[in-house]
Description:
The complex is a heterodimer. By secondary structure, chain A is mainly alpha-helical. Chain A folds into 2 domains: 1-92, RNA polymerase sigma factor, region 2, helix turn helix motif (Rna Polymerase Sigma Factor, Chain: A, Orthogonal Bundle), CATH 1.10.1740; 95-195, Winged helix-like DNA-binding domain superfamily/Winged helix DNA-binding domain (Arc Repressor Mutant, subunit A). Chain A has helices at residues 5-12, 20-38, 40-56, 69-82, 84-92, 100-126, 129-139, 145-152, 156-177, 183-187. The model of chain A is unreliable at 93-107 and 177-195 (pLDDT under 50). In chain B, a hairpin with a 6-residue loop joins strand 4 and strand 5 (138-142). In chain B, helix 5 crosses helix 7 (223-233) and helix 6 (205-218) runs antiparallel to helix 7 (223-233). Chain B starts with 7 loop residues before the first helix and ends in a 7-residue tail after the last strand. The A-B interface holds A 16-17, 19-20, 23-24, 27-29, 31-32, 35-36, 40, 44, 47-48, 51-52, 55, 116-117, 120-121, 124, 135-136, 138-140, 167, 170-171, 174-175, 178, 182-184, 186-187 and B 1-3, 5-13, 15-16, 19-24, 26-27, 29-31, 33-35, 37-39, 41-42.
Amino acid sequence: MTATDAEIIERSRREPESFAEIFDRHAPHIHRYLARRLGREAADDAVAETFLAAFDKRERYDRGRPDARPWLYGIATNVAGGHRRAEARRFGARPHPVDAHDHADRVAADVTARSLRAQLTAALGALSPGDRDVLLLIAWEQLAYEEVASALDIPVGTVRSRLNRARRLVREALGATSTTDTIEELLNNGQHQAR
Amino acid sequence: MDNTRLDDLTLVHDLGADTPLPTAADLDPVRQRLVAGITRQRTSRRRSRIALGGTTIGVAAAAAAVVAFSFVGGDPPAPSTATGQATAPPVTDPVRLLAAAAKTARAQTGQTPRPDQFVYTRTGDRETWFSVDGKHDSLMRRAGRDTPVPGCRGGVEAVVKGDDVVPGQFQPCEVRPAYRSDLPTTTEAMITYLADNASGEPGDINARGKDILGLATESMLPPATRAALYEAAAQIPGLTVIPSTQDGAGRPGVGITWTQPEGDPGSVGVVMVFDPTTHQFLGTNFDSMREPVIVDQPGQRP
């Protein structure tokens, strides 16, 4: 039978090298999460930081949790918090004004999509860190509410309220800045774009 | 606007959708950093600092006793400016020289010592026998005077006062193997290791050079580790080749040095000296390095 993460972490207390198995199991997802948040360049450092921090904390791992991934997401989220400057660069960019005359005829769809992207990243950047953490762990990483609660060490009720607030703020930001009639046009990548 | 048709979660999700899952190969450098970090914690060493040409060099505490060169108060020979000593065509590119040195190091068969053996070094009148695995009792001898260096077993080592072990007294310790099989064997991992264990601030080239020099001279390295060290050294900016120089014992060689900090009149640049033909590391312009030798017992000479 394959060992659970909890068993491997337990073993790594005596055989530190075996902690590399935890890396092999989870590093791809943790790396993608951090690359989404911080950019590819900063992700390598942040992943190394995450797993070294996890290694340091392994004695305190709750052995009642067979799957270590939510725990690792929690540590990665803290690490991302320490790289807030990189994240600010990624999320902080204001939407670029779209010059309709230059682009509309040729690449309207592309521009619309890019414009949406810029609006979205700006909206995410405007969220409070706690709200953003919850939203991204759910929307990007597909964690369940309970897993997010465990990862961030907050009650499930707080996960719900943060998620609701984050979603509302994102909707408001998009609604306020959208120049198109409906969000559907954006969603459809400009396929219904009026010329 | 039509909020029922707006799925903001899907929008956010799609924003992350173009970031692919990395492959194991993509992650390998990061994995090596983790493994190096794990290894480092296991064998982490207390650090001490010795004066070196007006600056300081961080070295492992035990290794400080093994340091194979004495920089302070020495009378280093000036690098020779004569040419034509080398029989091989002169190498003028530091990266190529270090690559050749790495190749030479990697090609060495290098006996892998048993854990219960000892690394013997001799510098001037100082001899050391350090435990390969750090767990056996080692010995230093200077001018005929023996100093015991107790091995670290079960997290404790015997206390030494003066030149004698204090009976029945123990103190916490970290295992310090004289044979550094715990160090990285690839260039990339070595660069990371050097960065993580830097004695100077990030970007301090002089400190990095001295860290490398410390590893090259003060411990016995497996061939692949020594090769990785030279390859990592090639990444230091500002390296220059001294085509014809000599080591501390007067052996001719080709040297590598790096930009030295300015403004310290007492500071003499350290030159790593390589055999001009085989590109084997000979030592520095301050001292020749006797190849460490494996012996079975403390006190035993090869």
